Amino acid sequence: MGHHASPGRGLTASPGDIFPPRDIDPELVEAGRLLFAAECRFVAGAARADALPAESLPEIAFIGRSNVGKSSLVNALTGRRMLARTSNTPGRTQQLNFFDLGGRLMLVDLPGYGYAAASKSAVRDWVALIRHYLSARASLRRACLLIDARRGISDVDRPTMTLCDEAALSYQVVLTKTDAVGPTALAEVVASVAVELQRHRAAHPEIHLTSAEKRIGIAALRATLAGFANRGAA
């Protein structure tokens, strides 16, 4: 079903079983599977605040540093290889991309931050757009803050965490590329992230461990996000 880590949980387990799957209600897992099996269509791309689409569905935002794996994770969640464009070139996503998931949930792929090679004007515009979206979007229910498991939280991530705190926007850390990290190093990263999250009032304490390539944690993350979907829609 995927992997989770709560602060302090599982860190003394054997190296082969550091993060045992958290018990999840099978009904939630099935709800997540059905939701993400629904049609998912591109709605709009917005490079400016005045180009944001009308608010119609609960929104889940995916945000993180450039090349952290946002597009790959969105593709893995929806089971579609090319829904969100992926690239090995940092800074490829330069707008907010909105995807309607079955008329029940809007997935939003945000531009990556922290890419030094981008022009100063581009960086300034991206930062302003992300700040506006995270702080002013009434339909935004949660932000998934993607952190590369090989790096952990870094200085480029902290301004976004502070912004979410100031906007009282609930956000949840999703570790990506966990398949590229050994068990001991992964345990250290999870412990460090858990400690830092305790200092942020808008941070959800549970940490999702994922790998888009190996499909680690995908079912569990689907189950969590399904809880935000509009249940009034068919």
Any chance you could write out the topology, listing elements then pairs?
Layout: E1 3-5, H1 26-37, E2 40-46, E3 59-64, H2 70-78, E4 96-101, E5 105-109, H3 120-136, E6 140-148, H4 158-166, E7 171-176, H5 183-197, E8 207-209, H6 218-226
Parallel strand pairs: 3-5, 3-6, 6-7, 7-8
Antiparallel strand pairs: 1-8, 2-4, 4-5
Characterize the structure shown.
The structure is a single chain. With 234 residues, this protein is of the alpha/beta class. The chain has a single domain, classed as P-loop containing nucleotide triphosphate hydrolases (Rossmann fold). Helix content is 30%, strand content 19%. The chain contains 6 helices and 8 strands, in the order βαββαββαβαβαβα. It has helices at 26-37, 70-78, 120-136, 158-166, 183-197, 218-226, and strands spanning 3-5, 40-46, 59-64, 96-101, 105-109, 140-148, 171-176, 207-209. An 8-stranded mixed β-sheet has the order 1-8-7-6-3-5-4-2, sandwiched between helices. Strand 7, helix 5 (183-197) and strand 8 (207-209) form a beta-alpha-beta unit. The longest helix has 17 residues, at 120-136. It is globular and about 45 Å long. The model is unreliable at 6-20 and 86-92 (pLDDT under 50).
